[in-house]
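#structure-requests
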Amino acid sequence: MAAAKSGGGDQRAGLLYGIGAYGMWGLVPLFWPLLKPSGAIEILAHRMVWSLAVVGIALLALRRWGWVRELLRQPRKLGLIAIAASVITVNWGLYIWSVNTGHVVEASLGYFINPLVTIAMGVLLLKERLRPAQWAAVGTGFAAVVVLTFGYGRPPWISLTLAFSFAVYGLVKKKVNLGGVESLAAETAIQFLPAMAYLVWLGSQGSLTFGAEGAGHAALLAATGVVTAAPLVCFGAAAIRVPLSTLGLLQYLAPVFQFLLGVAYFHEAMPPERWAGFSLVWLALTILTWDALRTSRRTRAEALRLAKAAATAARVPEERIAEDRIAEERAPRL
């Protein structure tokens, strides 16, 4: 009974951590405009520098440094982390720029279509085979991009770049197989020197806004480290407590919040053709989610059936032994 309660408590805590992580990622468009008049690249550089400081303090507190020595002995892993750092730099920088230039809705679209891009990359790069429903979802997503291209008068390059960069980042992270905090520490360690060099150069040009706009603005720039690390820590706590299927559903919270902020708070235009494109994306995601849940249920049912069959097979010899003993006891003795 106590174990069941503990398991239920873990599930509830994991759900709250997951909502917290994706909720923070969804509400982050409210934060980046507070950093103006800093430009997107300066904000990005501060994010890299202060993120390393935050995760460094976290690792010191947790005394988790053993992975560094092991990582330094693996050049291939270091190379993959360098690729991950480069790709996430593009993703972070473009996202900050898009929010601060009035493209929140288009940025949210990138994270809506990210699962579809991840599936497409699995087919193209990993030669994975898709189920019919997954093919239908990918095809519907492609149709949505075509419709949105007409709606915007150009391909939705912000959305596509964000989606593809994050999909590549996820693929590389999967191959690196490091914990969330450790991975962020390694990536920001690679980003640190170029970021710091850029900030020093801005200072030498008299263009650095850090400190020039007051203590409050400087504190907000320093807070970019917390804004980066906090949701990642919550995500890590959720990932070990709730099933991946639950996390897969929670991931849609972030782009939903971003989309609602873009429309309701930032008052970005949504003409009919964009609604049509977004509707196709949401249809594709509905198909994808339905298929994932159905497959998950079938997998669990099959695992349960096999477990029951194994338990039954294990019990049969025991029952036979018991029957043989009873037969022996009842047999007439000579």
